[in-house]
Structures are given as structure tokens and as C-alpha cells.
Amino acid sequence: MTDPSDDPLLVRAREALADAYVPYSEYPVGAAVRTADGSVFVGCNIENANYSNSLHAEEVAIAEAVKNGHDEFERVAVSSGVRDGVTPCGMCRQTLAEFCDGEVEVVCDEGDDVASYALGELLPNTISLETLEEADAARGREE
């Protein structure tokens, strides 16, 4: 068993929960990303009444890091207010895959324990620059 309070990145994700704006779902999520140079950026979910304009914690953390000049990440931690082991949703997984390779560790808060995944386990067939280039090449062969 891993004690989540011993993981500084997960602690930062938990702290980010306090800033979540969740008047509709009442399900706060916090995320923290560690960049290749060791910097840490956090995010929380920010809901909107129409839901589709809501921002997810992982997106907010990645956006903050990218805004500050970072585009390589080595670790991600996610926590919810109920510490139910929440993993990044599909959209967030794809966003993470834009900046992370499949080996990047994603740590999910289970309260007294953590679950740990490689991003590639969570999103095995990502859309990438390479897949888009392959699709373009395939179209060129068909024409």
C-alpha cells in the first residue's frame, strides 16, 4: 500500500480541490502535473451550466504549464473530493497524450492508497501527429 500523503504531486492535486468551481455536479477534481524540469502546475475543474463548456482539472493544469513555456511532462496526479480513484476522462487523456509519451505515470487518488497507470494503458491508441501523417499519406496513395 502506498501512502498518498507521501506523494508531493498527489498532495498538490488534493490541495487544488479547494479551488474547484462545481456548483452543478458537486464533484471537485484536482490535478497536478510535473514537467520535465521538475516544475509543478495544478488545476481544478471549473463547471459551466451547459456542462460542455466546463474545464477539467487536467486540462487546466496542462494549460497553465504550457502557458508558462512547458510542453514535456513526466508525471500526473489526479484526485477527487471523494477520493474514488478517478482517472482522467478520454478528452483529458488525449490532451495528456499531446504532451506525454505512453510511459508517463498517471497517479489516481484512492484515499488511503493510489492506483498508478502508464498513460498508454489508459489510452492505448491515441491520435497523434504520426497517425495524422499516416492518414494523409494513405489518402495520397488512394488519389
Describe this structure in words.
This is cytidine deaminase. GO terms for molecular function: cytidine deaminase activity; identical protein binding; zinc ion binding. Substrate binds at residues 45-51. Residues 4-130 form the CMP/dCMP-type deaminase domain. With 143 residues, this protein is α+β, with helices and mostly antiparallel strands. The protein has five helices and five strands; from the N terminus they run αββαβαββαα. Helix 3 links the parallel strand 3 and strand 4. The N and C termini lie far apart (56 Å). The relative contact order is 0.16.
Brief description of this entry?
Helix content is 34%, strand content 21%.
Instruction: Give the DSSP E fraction (strand runs of 2 or more residues).
Output: 15-25%
Report the count of strand segments: 5
**Number of self-contained structural domains:** 1
Number of helices: 5
Rg computed from alpha carbons, rounded to a whole number of angstroms: 16 Å
CATH class: Alpha Beta
Class by alpha and beta content: alpha+beta
Helix residue percentage: 25-40%
CATH architecture heading: 3-Layer(aba) Sandwich
Q: Which H/E pattern describes the elements?
A: HEEHEHEEHH
The shape is globular
